[in-house]
Amino acid sequence: KATTSTLSKPSSAEVCAIDPTAIVSDACASYSALDTLNRAVSPYLKSITQSTDFFAYYRLNLFDQQCPVRAWDDETGTCGNIACKVDTLEDEKDIPVIWRAEELSKLEGPKAAHPGRQLQKERGEQRPLQGDLGEDVGESCVVEYDDECDDRDYCVPEDESATAKGDYVSLVDNPERFTGYAGSAVWDAIYKENCFSKESQLSGPTAKAASLNPFQAANDLRTIIQKNAPSNDLELDDECLEKRVFYRIVSGMHASVSTHICFDYLNKTTGKWGPNLECYRDRLATHPERVSNLYFDYAILLRAVTKLRTYLKNYTFCSGDASQNRDTKNKILQLANTAATYPRIFDENTMFQDPDVSGDLKEDFRNRFRNVSRLMDCVGCDKCRLWGKLQTVGYGTALKVLFEYDELKNGENPPLRRTELVALVNTLDRVSSSLTALNKMRDMVAETTIPSISEPDRQEPSAKMKDHSEAKGAIAPDFESDALFDEEEEPNFHSDQTIGEIFRDEWNLVWRTYIYVLKSWISIPPKMFRIIVIELSRLWSFWLGLPIPERSWEFQWRPQKDEL
Ligand SMILES: Cc1cc2nc3c(=O)[nH]c(=O)nc-3n(C[C@H](O)[C@H](O)[C@H](O)COP(=O)(O)OP(=O)(O)OC[C@H]3O[C@@H](n4cnc5c(N)ncnc54)[C@H](O)[C@@H]3O)c2cc1C
């Protein structure tokens, strides 16, 4: 059972019916329940994000924003850190141009600049972008009119000057996948934001706001956690308590990015895109807590979409295109209704409950999220920055909906901007497809578990997957591989054999049996070690509530008597 925090500890058994063996900590659903839900929800998500103009395009300021980290910014005025540049591989010259990191990280497909209010009026509601995204795009579904940020937002308010409104880009043409970009320094900076008790690294007014009273916020959260936590359940970290929730969201997002990289990876030798199981093993399979955080994010995002059901019923998606408006609305309502079939996968009502502290705490959360949004401008790869910025807004929107929205009210809730809604649904789609990809890679690894331990060719599962028994055989005490009696060599007492020949055959048999037994004894320690490792890893999965990999070794009593 993976229980680390009781921030969202269910208030009653009805709210969160917990399966003790497989519950996602801090959420109210088991891993398998979320997987089942995901199988039902993902076709709607795919259809919405791939085939409606409203959700397939996103507006953002991708190129004109500055990286705000002082240390990276001071020298050049732009992000000077190596991690903000597109990674150039050492052997980059040796690979075809199209596979190079800088090529892979570029945006693809048509772009359209945001027209100012005046221009929008002149061009009319039907064609505010004048066909820049392609003639068949419903532009009234894509253009965003209201882009102000208010106090309750977790987003970064856009620069209000007319030129800084950003571009519309196609999310379908720019899938999130391997680009060769090395972003570890940016991730590190993001995780540092998680430490609420340390001074913010950012410059400017946001940093000031974020660090106004950091210790107060830490104390506030500590109070809430301690109130809810059973005595031994939670290890309290005095320095940095807020990371309990903040960290899980960021780590889940990071895990989702890694999943897409590993699942849609470019093999530079063959030029083919496909799953990279080595990458999956190194970044995800060996870090169950990251996978758990991914499921946690899924629960948060799906709960936020479910909570918007009433709001979406009255939402206008495409003001100039009635049929697309209807179609988009139908699809999103089907999604929200399907998601709502599970009683409640995350209970936000157990968080920020104390009226004395919840204000400060929420403010701190918002500021942290705004800082993370700004750090996304340090990402030196266009596609990564696009998805990084979108997903930050997506999580920010989910938090806004979870903590600022009243499900039962409608008109009184703060309005959502188009970018927020698009970001929320696309972020949910990212995490949803991460869960699907994870399950697929897990299955592939299960088929190749044994070769993955003993052989370096983990990335080429297909041959091994064809013959499961072959994979198993590699760890089963492999009596076959030391085949004692080959067909030709089997003792064969022909009537015309001399006594000497029979004696020699018998002697050979005894000698080979002796060698065989000796070899078997020598191979026992490494075999036992591998079996213990596999069993411990299965136990670890069981303990965390993750799906338990199939046992990949077995006992075989060989050679059989009749084989002797
Ligand atoms: C916002 C953003 C978006 C990106 N998008 C893409 C993309 O679309 N395509 C692409 O190819 N590359 C992308 N990158 C780069 C990519 O995420 C990695 O940085 C890169 O592939 C190098 O990976 P790595 O294995 O060195 O470790 P990184 O993924 O860079 O991780 C750095 C360190 O963080 C820790 N860590 C890793 N995962 C987690 C986790 N889930 N939770 C907690 N800690 C963790 C580990 O200690 C690790 O060493 C993006 C980077 C950023 C910052």
UniProtKB/TrEMBL annotation:
It comes from Stereocaulon virgatum. May function both as a monomer and a homodimer. Keywords: Disulfide bond, Electron transport, Endoplasmic reticulum, FAD, Flavoprotein, Glycoprotein, Membrane, Oxidoreductase, Redox-active center, Signal, Transport. Its cofactor is FAD. It is a peripheral membrane protein. It comes from the Eukaryota. Belongs to the EROs family. It is found in: Endoplasmic reticulum membrane. Residues 108-133, 449-471 are annotated as: Disordered. The keyword Amino-acid biosynthesis does not apply. PANTHER family: ERO1-LIKE PROTEIN (PTHR12613:SF0), ERO1-RELATED (PTHR12613). The lineage of its organism: Eukaryota, Fungi, Dikarya, Ascomycota, Pezizomycotina. The keyword Signal applies. This is Endoplasmic oxidoreductin. Residues 455-471 have a biased composition (Basic and acidic residues). Transmembrane segments: none annotated. InterPro entries: Ero1, ERO1-like_sf.
